[in-house]
Amino acid sequence: MDAAQPLIYVHDFHMQFGAKKVIEGLSFDVARGETFGFLGSNGSGKTTTIRALLGIYRPTAGTLEINGKVFSDDYGARLGYLPEERGLYKKESVLDVMSYFGRLKGLSKQDAVEYSRQFLERVDLSDKADVRVDKLSGGEQQKVQLGVTIMNEPELLILDEPTKGFDPVNRRLLMDIIEERKEAGATVMMVTHQMEEVERLCDRIILLKNGRAEAYGTIAEVQNQFGGRTIRLKYSGVLPRSPHYAVVLQETNYAELSLEDSADEAEVLKELVLAGVVVRGFVAAKRSLEDIFIQVYGEAGGAQDGTATPAARGLRRKGR
Ligand SMILES: Nc1ncnc2c1ncn2[C@@H]1O[C@H](COP(=O)(O)OP(=O)(O)OP(=O)(O)O)[C@@H](O)[C@H]1O
């Protein structure tokens, strides 16, 4: 195994269903040990890409490899896959289902039962060990499924919306569990619509749009690509024109400025004061991923023509 070789490698991937082109030349890779956020609006092709990577779909064109090979059972790394469509045997007890999958994944019966009991305790389901799966709530079933997914300590975890449908407390618990796998050295590729999960867990991300990568890189790189730094300004006076920023939102005595890459916050403040602006509040912040997501998929261009996107309005509300 070549440690420098990415664990997941996708190059010029195309996927078409009938006349419908879903993916049109997608390329990315996932390095060993990194947590990779696979992001995109509903229907943008995330699940399709995962299915092609795992050999469930045959790609129309392109290369999709895990560990240097097209996926097959002996591709050479332990995989934990949490599919979008959850599927557990519903009429069996939780413990029976978990230990059955444990055996399938190569654990001894004793280890599978022990692991299952420990996991159920961790996710506050000890009292449900002997309950039939179909008597559990949706969130409880999902916890069990995540337990099954990680039970053989996978080196590669592919998680399709792992925290979908969870309340905030359980979402945090699930993120803790994923983070532990990451800290244990696992490579994680996860689909999520929760930007706070991305900011907490992901080393790099990709944003899929129209079958291609709209953005790809570390969170900081993507933030920079979309006008990295913003200043929220409370002021009176008239804002001078400046090569160092663009005004993306303006109201009475309040503005948001998007800084140019080379601009320095302190210099911008000095520039404002020298121009006679009375500065009452000056907060420098990175653009949130949620704001970027809405710009890419929602009211694209809204922030550029000076009208506020909902996210920009939210940013402003929080900042004031
Ligand atoms: N087997 C299939 N046959 C025809 N069309 C399909 C098939 N699988 C997926 N699609 C289409 O491909 C597009 C992408 O679907 P996909 O499930 O990959 O999106 P997604 O990004 O995972 O969405 P979501 O965030 O809603 O889960 C959709 O328009 C979907 O209808």
UniProtKB/TrEMBL annotation:
Q: Name one GO cellular component term.
A: plasma membrane
Keyword check for Glycoprotein: no
- Write out the entry's keywords from A to Z: Antibiotic resistance, ATP-binding, Nucleotide-binding, Transport
Q: How does it sit in the membrane?
A: Peripheral membrane protein
Keyword Transport tagged: yes
InterPro entries linked: AAA+_ATPase, ABC_transporter-like_ATP-bd, ABC_transporter-like_CS, ABC_transporter_ATP-binding, DrrA1/2-like_C, P-loop_NTPase
Q: Which GO terms describe its molecular function?
A: ATP binding; ATP hydrolysis activity
Q: Which GO terms describe its biological process?
A: response to antibiotic
In which compartments does the protein localize? Cell membrane
**What family does the entry list?**
Belongs to the ABC transporter superfamily.
Name of the protein in question: ABC transporter ATP-binding protein
Q: Which organism is it from?
A: Arthrobacter psychrochitiniphilus
